[in-house]
Design a protein that fits this description.
By secondary structure, the protein is an alpha+beta fold. The chain has 5 domains: 92 residues; 74 residues, no CATH class; 64 residues, Trypsin Inhibitor V, Chain A (2-Layer Sandwich); 63 residues, Trypsin Inhibitor V, Chain A (2-Layer Sandwich); 189 residues, 5' to 3' exonuclease, C-terminal subdomain (DNA polymerase, domain 1, Orthogonal Bundle). The protein has 15 helices and 24 strands. A hairpin with a 2-residue loop joins strand 2 and strand 3. The two termini are 72 Å apart.
Length: 570
């Protein structure tokens, strides 16, 4: 508000004439530069805050993933310890098998396997096929009986110290009877009660129930053994795996912007719930509150409602009577934005605010647009005053609401005071009171470069008063006063001015007129109308290329232009 007060105080000083307009404009320009710099700094700060929030959200996600990996490492280390314990137990055992029991032991094992496979509760009907067995063992004699001593897992025994005993076991194929088998139903997607009913209806019984974390709804069947549509004996137990929703820690999103907060919530396997706004001095979109306290645990997919900072209610400033730039500054300072700007013809200074919407003092939400109507001067068409005397032109301009701007004198064969050109051009739409710059002809021989007061005085004594007089003068006569070579130069320059002026009356621009006079010897309209287009064009083009006639770098002459000029002269 300090800058606003400073502007208003400066404006009062300007109105009270305490400070001149130039100083006022310089101070306002400096204040505008400072204000723009402050706005740029605030924009940079806002961008850095957004980047910081993004980094914080990414850090939270990384820490959550780190916790999950730590839990998995702990579980694997526990499993490793159990395996090492089992290996130690196996290493302590070193069984000895008598020779007469070896074959009987294999047979008993096979019979036991066959009995188990034939039980009604088996998942499917299996048939024992042939298999080869190689036993690496130590042979020893005890009580005149051959003993087989199995090595321990950690024994290091040379292969030559072990004997190899080979067994080949074969079985007869058994025909598989599936006539009494039933098809296992597909249980995936059912809840626990629905799955139990389907299992019983199909003639099976419910087996073991396992739980596994999943994004599926709590208690939904996500896997089964035997698989769906496989065959099994009636009464076979069907094991099922159901979904279990695990709990997660709720992250802290208060203070983040809305986009970063949403990302953190979804990355935490929660859902973004209802979003409401609350008036606050915090930056709009900043999260002020969350429905579940940070650090608490919640089920995966639980919605988290958040409250964000809404836009402030601000008061519309008084703009009527202010210039447009100041009005825009006051609008932005009030946390609003300039809206539509309409123009209205008025006697007020151009750019003055005539109306505003909403009106001053109205309370609106920050960021709302403020529309304005500003004053403009009535536009009128510039009259054509070329060819007129400067005194007559001044009267015409003043009567039509214009002002005289710069008056540039130019050597010309036209009468002194004749207007050669004007800016803006005739027919241009401009504001009332616009100043017109005029180029005025001057016949005074002193307009020719090199003719000063002394030489012009001598020339006037012999009756050479104007540029036209000099162009028509005899070189010998002028040469007696200023020297022959100087006289030739002055007369040539006078003829150039005279010829250029005549060609300019056809609408030929000054540069092209000089090229025609210098290169082509075209010093009058009569000479131009009798010229041959191709020859004149080639002469001018060669003179420019050779440097005989000096022209600006961007100047070029076209044959079509030459043809048009000749037709104008004719």
């Amino acid at each position: 508000m300090t800058i606003i007060n400073l502007r208003q105080n400066l404006d009062k000083l300007r109105i009270e004439k305490t400070i001149d307009e130039t100083s006022f404009n310089q101070i306002i320009k400096s204040i505008d530069e400072i204000d723009v710099e402050l706005l740029n700094k605030n924009s940079q700060i806002f961008e850095l805050e957004n980047k910081l929030n993004l980094v914080i959200s990414e850090k939270i996600v990384v820490e959550q993933e780190k916790n999950i990996l730590s839990q998995q490492i702990t579980r694997l280390l526990s499993e490793k310890a159990d395996l090492e314990k089992n290996i130690q137990t196996l290493q302590l055992q070193r069984p000895q098998i008598p020779s007469e029991s070896l074959v009987a032991t294999f047979m008993q094992s096979l019979d036991s396997m066959a009995d188990k496979l034939d039980e009604p509760a088996a998942r499917a009907n299996y048939v024992i096929s042939s298999m080869d067995v190689k036993l690496r063992t130590n042979l020893s004699i005890k009580d005149d009986k051959l003993q087989f001593q199995l090595p321990k897992p950690d024994d290091i025994i040379p292969p030559d110290n072990l004997s190899t005993i080979e067994f080949k076991i074969k079985s007869s194929p058994k025909e598989l009877d599936i006539s009494q088998y039933h098809e296992v139903p597909n249980l995936t997607g059912m809840n626990l009660d629905e799955a139990g009913y389907a299992i019983n209806e199909a003639g099976f019984k419910q087996g073991t129930i396992h739980e596994k974390s999943s994004n599926s709804p709590q208690g939904m069947v996500i896997d089964q053994i035997p698989s769906a549509r496989s065959l099994a004996r009636p009464g076979t137990p069907v094991d099922i795996t159901i979904s279990k929703i695990i709990n997660v820690e709720v992250p802290n999103v208060v203070g983040m912007d809305i986009d970063s907060g949403k990302l953190v919530i979804t990355n935490s396997r929660l859902k973004v719930g209802e979003i409401t706004e609350r008036s606050s001095t915090s930056r709009p979109g900043t999260i002020l509150n969350q429905s579940i306290e940070a650090g608490a645990t919640a089920l995966v997919g639980t919605p988290v409602d958040i409250v964000i900072a809404g836009r402030e209610i601000v008061e519309v400033p008084e703009l009527i009577g202010e210039q447009l730039n100041m009005a825009k500054f006051l609008i932005r300072s009030a946390k609003l934005v300039p809206g539509n700007i309409e123009k209205q013809v008025s006697t007020e200074k151009a750019g003055t605010v005539l109306h505003q919407d909403p009106p001053a003092g109205a309370e609106v939400i920050e960021g709302e647009p403020v529309n304005m109507v500003i004053s403009v001067m009535e536009t009128i068409k510039v009259p054509d005053i070329t060819g007129k005397h400067v005194n007559d032109a001044m009267t015409i301009l003043e009567n039509n609401g214009f002002r005289i701007g710069r008056i540039i004198k130019r050597a010309s064969s036209h009468s002194t005071g004749t207007i050669l050109s004007q800016e803006p051009e005739a027919g241009t739409e401009v504001n009332s009171g616009t100043a017109l710059d005029l180029v005025v002809a001057n016949q005074d021989i002193e307009m020719i470069e090199g003719i000063g007061p002394e030489r012009s005085s001598k020339l006037r004594e012999i009756g050479i008063n104007t540029i036209n007089d000099l162009a028509a003068a005899d070189t010998w006569t002028v040469g007696e006063l200023v020297g022959r070579s100087t006289a030739t130069k002055f007369i040539s320059m006078a003829k150039l001015i005279e010829g250029t002026s005549q060609l300019g009356s056809l609408g030929i621009d000054r540069q092209s007129a000089e090229v025609l006079v210098k290169a082509g010897g075209i010093d009058s309209v009569d000479t131009l109308k009798n010229a041959r287009v191709n020859e004149l064009y080639n002469v001018c083009k060669e003179a420019i290329a050779s440097g005989k006639v000096q022209v600006p770098a961007d100047y070029s002459i076209k044959q079509d232009d030459v043809e048009r000029w000749v037709k104008l002269a004719q």
